[in-house]
Amino acid sequence: NVDDDDESREDPHDTACCRRLMSLDNSCVCQAAARLPAFMTAVRHVVRLTPVDGCHVTFECPGSF
């Protein structure tokens, strides 16, 4: 007998969007972020995305200076 509450609690890391973001290469994200204005990318920065509750994907990018 399966509890309906357990079935409805999907693992946030198992959602399509979360899986896709986790599969991105850090350097690819940083390369895209480098196109932002210089004041946003001059220092080391962290890009943290939360596409769904419980799924936090973080990318760390070095600064351009």
SSE blueprint and pairings:
Elements: H1 4-8, H2 16-23, H3 26-33, H4 38-41, E1 45-52, E2 55-61
Provide structural commentary:
With 65 residues, the protein is an alpha+beta fold. It has one domain (4-61). It is built from four helices and two strands. A two-stranded antiparallel ribbon has the order 1-2. Strand 1 and strand 2 form a beta hairpin. The N and C termini lie far apart (59 Å). The relative contact order is 0.23. This is Os08g0360700 protein. It comes from Oryza sativa subsp. japonica (Rice).
Please tell me the overall pLDDT: 84
**From the alpha-carbon coordinates, what is the Rg to the nearest angstrom?**
16 Å
* Lateral arrangement of strands in the main beta sheet: 1-2
What profile does the largest beta sheet have? 2 strands, antiparallel
Shape: elongated
Low-confidence stretches: 1-5
What structural class do helix, strand and pairing data support? Answer: alpha+beta
Distance between the termini: 59 Å
Protein name: Os08g0360700 protein
Organism: Oryza sativa subsp. japonica (Rice)
